[in-house]
Specification:
6-stranded mixed sheet; 12 helices; elongated; alpha/beta
Length: about 290
């Protein structure tokens, strides 16, 4: 794991690794060596210059610094290179215990930052494909009419639930500001479907084999029958955890969205504890028919 026990001897651990020690029997050899030196060589060692002892320690420590591993992390542009540097500087200046503590604290801060600010992306469909990508990274991607697809890259917890809902609120506000021309009720249904299917950028040439033409009218008709103007689809492939606080915040947002005839759907949805979702009332907020398992 590229680490050493906090309460162990770093020099001895490094020596054991270098010599290929496989069992605790090496302590017997160490004890005999210390006994021999203490009994027969102590009178001679006492006259050794301190520089010699320092050179021995320095030589032992140099083997412990894996500079090649650090260079590899830097070339990979990995965040681990920063943690390596923090642990190294902390160990050299304050000792191994504080060096490890500094690295652990830095890792925890980074983890909290990741949980607090996961990526929130609006997705669009790449022309001629069935692939959906971030609009920020792929400006050529197009959004489907009356549908907005978003992806939240992280667990949905009390730490980041407000940020998640804020992103949805900004999306809805910008969507509503576009005017009523984006709503299904503003145009004839048959003309709307024909216009939708005639745009080749929405479906590839294999669309006929997938029967999209037969499915789209029924989907739009179902939305009209339920008085739904818009749908927000949340790509939940990276939401591997949802806590109770996030559920309550999601419930409040869903209530507000329903006032604007907007439904919330979950796609690629999976949860390691489906019983929790059932007990917590998640499916009362988002009906099971609007949750699509990957």
């Amino acid at each position: 794991f590229n680490c050493l026990p906090g309460a162990a001897s770093p020099a001895r651990t490094n020596l054991n690794f270098t010599l290929g020690v496989k069992s605790p029997l090496h302590n017997v050899a160490y004890s005999l060596g210390v006994f021999f030196v203490g009994m027969f060589l102590l009178d001679y060692i006492v006259y050794s210059p301190e520089a010699v002892l320092g050179a021995i320690i320095t030589q032992a420590m140099m083997r412990m610094v894996n500079v090649g591993f650090f260079i590899k992390l830097v070339k990979m542009k990995s965040i681990d290179s920063l943690f390596w540097l923090i642990a190294f500087v902390g160990t050299v200046t304050t000792g191994i215990t504080y060096g490890i503590i500094f690295a652990l604290v830095s890792s925890v801060i980074y983890l909290i930052k990741f949980l607090y600010k996961p990526k929130f992306e609006v997705l669009g469909k790449l022309p001629g494909t069935l692939i959906f990508k971030s609009l920020d990274k792929f400006p050529q991607a197009v959004q489907l009419p009356y549908v907005r697809i978003v992806r939240f890259e992280g667990p949905l917890t009390f730490i980041n639930a407000q940020k998640f809902i804020r992103g949805l609120e900004d999306l809805v506000e910008a969507w509503l500001d576009d005017g009523d021309s984006d709503t299904p009720k503003s145009m004839d249904t048959d003309n709307m479907i024909n216009e939708y299917l005639s745009k080749n950028q929405y479906f590839p040439t294999i669309s006929s084999s997938l029967n999209f033409e037969d499915r789209i009218p029924s989907i739009l008709q179902d939305l009209n029958d339920n008085d739904v103007d818009r749908v927000i689809i949340i790509d939940a492939c990276m939401i591997n955890e949802i806590d109770f606080t996030a559920l309550q915040i999601l419930r409040r947002f869903n209530t507000q969205a329903n006032k604007f005839n907007i439904q919330i759907w979950f796609a690629s949805f999976s949860h390691p504890n489906s019983n929790f979702l059932l007990r917590s009332g998640f499916y009362d907020i988002i009906p099971l028919v609007h949750c699509f398992v990957d």
